[in-house]
Specification:
The protein is an alpha/beta fold. Helices cover 39% and strands 17% of the residues. The strands form 2 sheets. The chain has a 6-stranded parallel β-sheet. The model has no long low-confidence stretch (mean pLDDT 94).
Length: 348
Amino acid sequence: MAVVAIVTSAPPLTEGGHLVLARSLEQALIEAGHSVGIITTPSNRFGRQGPAYLANWLTDVGMTGTGQKVDQVISLRFPAYAVRHSNHVCWLVHTMREYYDGWDRFASTLSPQGRVKETTRRSLIRAADTYFLKRVKKLYTISQVVSDRLTKWNHLPSEALHPPPPPRAYRCDGYGDFVFFASRLSPLKRADLVLRALAEPPARRVRAVIGGEGEELPRLQALARELNIADRITFTGRLTDDALVEQLARCRAVVFVPKMEDYGFVTVEAFASAKPVITASDAGGPLEFVSDGETGLVSAPDPAAVADAMDRLWSAPEARLREMGEAGHARVRDINWDHVIDRLTEGL
């Protein structure tokens, strides 16, 4: 039995996909016979990332509180990969995207003085990321999208290793009378695109359930009223695991149209529930699974196109929805924790 530390970073009082991944990985490692714990290290707000990298670099991950030697560290995101360990494997969720592919969007919100400051910080963070990631024993990512970013920006090779759906009792209870969107409600997830699509004529019959919480929720609720679609939308807030499984089981289809998503757990969870997925042509990670017309629909990232995709699945007979959902289920069937654990702990 090996002692394994999963290290991830998070701002205080914040839930994110990397924490879902950390807990799922912890459970899988325990089932594989290892002694495992999760270490959550600092991830500061803008302007304070330097101290966060330093804090991670100084964090002692070599020994447990009871004096046991830690045999392996698996880090997941920035700046957790700054920790030091002789057997350090990184399974990267993402770097700080505002300093990479999200720079143009981020920089457009800055004053001229702020842009000069953040340009300097961007150079320093990129250099630090390359330095620390180059020194891990093995570098994996959660998707080819993330691997491609590392190649482009950091000139680092990596291997994409898809995470399985979180261990939940997924099922299909048929194909109901609503489409389901589930995500943290932030700008890059583009829940507003779903709302604007619902206001388009082709989607006037469609009902939607929006699951999740985040800074965009008040704006989305106001937008639903502004578009006169509030009577066709249910905002659930944060969902428990059981409630998420219930919505996936009962929905007609899942709609997930983010901008260059790292991975998108809801895609593989939808397929585990035998549901087709509507996504966008610039969605990133979901496109590694969603094949247009086979496991779901891929639309242009504009309201009219997403509305047309919704209408197509709304009008489709249940047999066609089941066919697509089962094709998706087959697509993720071989993504399993045994394979992931074998790769992450190879040589342990």
